């Protein structure tokens, strides 16, 4: 039982100095524990002692890629040296039913208290969500992202950002108007391997980059696959903006841009010109194979114009036997002092080779976390994997998005909204040259549109 302060103060009538000293010490010790004691200013802890900030995620869609991303959110960031943020999934939504969202949350080992919604409209109204991850097909990105932004939610949207540049311009305008974070989920940009490559270029190790070859292809034509022989696969379905350009070509373009555009001074860099060829997939009219030649304007001081060839295909693959050792590099970044090779798959590479003109060669392995720590983990690309490890590698982009939200930034560190827009404009031009048009309802900037 604590002695009340007023009683102690009233008892100081004795002239005994020792008694007064003891009572004074008692007052000093007891006052901080009193109910009315308030700390006016928070105590600032050293940065290395501060707790990670919790960022609350809402997952919009429940397909394979959403499952992979959500499971990655559950991997402790400290295991990869990230100490400033902590990911928590607080809600998920399926467009078909609440029960499907409930099963999704269970399958992804989300907290028991996470909310399940049977519509995206309900999800974006949840006041406990800090940021929404959009994992629907390309055709739905604009409508879904606009729904989240207009509801006041920060957004991480799967690639390709939208079906065209006009839609992305609209999203950027709304995000700026509402002071919200918006980022394209091109996970490859946030790999330690990608950061290493960009740093090598910036260091001048291979000199001025003059040319880049980038391929991301897979022999996945549905007609050759008994499971998708009805041509309804999203990969070739025009109603879903199917075809390799938006789905796989974005990775070839990612390597071209992060080596020839991201690395340039943002105040002086210019959009590239593009010439392309496209082969259509007969049964549906989607693109089947695309080859792009890009020219990036640069000053003579910076090496002059740089060229790039970016390719993607559903008919032939970057590594036909699935072994990087026999297929060779899928990315070649060539400078006047050497080149950097990146081995397939381009979206999730695990090996680089640096070859210099003086004869020096350096190979580096970049082991990615394997899905599931021995358990079957559907990785969003159509296969179960049993490799040891934990996570798939999507958490690096999640770390960046969460950090940006905590810091109050409105776009990603390694791909600005301006750069995402330039890439979308390039793909618009490629589609124009190839005569590829998607249905009006997925090309429009009108909102809302029921798809």
Automatic annotation (TrEMBL):
Keywords: Oxidoreductase. It catalyses: D-xylose + NADP(+) = D-xylono-1,5-lactone + NADPH + H(+). The keyword Oxidoreductase applies. Pfam families: GFO_IDH_MocA, GFO_IDH_MocA_C3. GO terms for molecular function: D-xylose 1-dehydrogenase (NADP+) activity; nucleotide binding. Residues 58-183 form the Gfo/Idh/MocA-like oxidoreductase N-terminal domain. Its EC number is 1.1.1.179. Residues 197-340 form the GFO/IDH/MocA-like oxidoreductase domain. It comes from the Eukaryota. Belongs to the Gfo/Idh/MocA family. This is D-xylose 1-dehydrogenase (NADP(+), D-xylono-1,5-lactone-forming). The lineage of its organism: Eukaryota, Fungi, Dikarya, Ascomycota, Pezizomycotina.
């Amino acid at each position: 039982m604590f002695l009340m302060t007023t009683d102690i103060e009233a008892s100081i009538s004795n002239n005994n100095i020792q008694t007064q000293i003891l009572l004074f010490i008692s007052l000093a010790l007891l006052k901080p524990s009193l109910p009315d004691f308030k700390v006016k200013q928070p105590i600032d802890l050293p940065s290395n002692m501060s707790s990670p900030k919790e960022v609350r995620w809402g997952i919009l869609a429940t397909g394979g890629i959403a499952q992979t991303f959500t499971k990655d959110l559950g991997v402790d960031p400290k295991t990869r040296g990230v100490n400033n943020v902590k990911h928590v999934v607080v809600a998920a939504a399926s467009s078909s039913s609440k029960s499907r969202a409930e099963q999704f949350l269970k399958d992804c080992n989300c907290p028991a208290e996470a909310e399940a919604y049977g519509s995206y409209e309900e999800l974006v109204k949840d006041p406990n969500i800090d940021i929404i991850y959009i994992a629907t097909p390309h055709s739905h990105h604009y409508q879904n992202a606009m729904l989240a932004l207009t509801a006041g939610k920060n957004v991480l949207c799967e690639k390709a950002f939208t079906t065209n540049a006009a839609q992305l311009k609209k999203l950027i305008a709304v995000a700026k108007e509402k002071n919200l974070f918006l980022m394209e989920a091109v996970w490859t940009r946030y790999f330690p391997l990608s950061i290493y490559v960009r740093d090598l270029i910036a260091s001048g190790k291979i000199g001025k980059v003059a040319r880049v070859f980038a391929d991301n292809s897979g022999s996945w034509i549905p007609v050759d696959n008994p499971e998708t022989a009805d041509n309804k696969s999203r990969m070739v379905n025009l109603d879903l903006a199917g075809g390799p350009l938006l789905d796989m070509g974005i990775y070839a373009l990612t390597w071209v841009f992060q080596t020839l555009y991201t690395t340039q001074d943002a105040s002086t860099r210019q959009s590239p010109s593009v010439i392309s060829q496209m082969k259509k997939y007969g049964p549906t009219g989607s693109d089947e194979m695309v080859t792009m030649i890009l020219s990036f304007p640069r000053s003579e001081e910076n090496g002059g114009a740089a060229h790039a060839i970016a390719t993607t295909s559903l008919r032939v693959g970057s590594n036909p036997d699935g072994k990087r050792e026999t297929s060779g590099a899928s990315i070649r970044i060539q400078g006047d002092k050497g080149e950097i090779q990146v081995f397939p798959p381009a979206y999730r590479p695990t090996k680089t080779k640096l070859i210099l003109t003086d004869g020096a060669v350096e190979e580096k392995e970049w082991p990615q976390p394997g899905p599931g720590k021995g358990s079957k983990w559907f990785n969003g690309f159509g296969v179960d994997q049993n490799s040891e490890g934990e996570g798939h590698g999507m958490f690096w982009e999640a770390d960046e998005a969460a950090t940006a939200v905590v810091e109050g930034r409105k776009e990603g560190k390694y791909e600005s909204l301006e750069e995402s827009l330039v890439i979308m404009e390039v793909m618009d031009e490629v589609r124009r040259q190839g005569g590829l048009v998607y249905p009006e309802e997925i090309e429009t900037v009108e909102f809302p549109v029921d798809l």
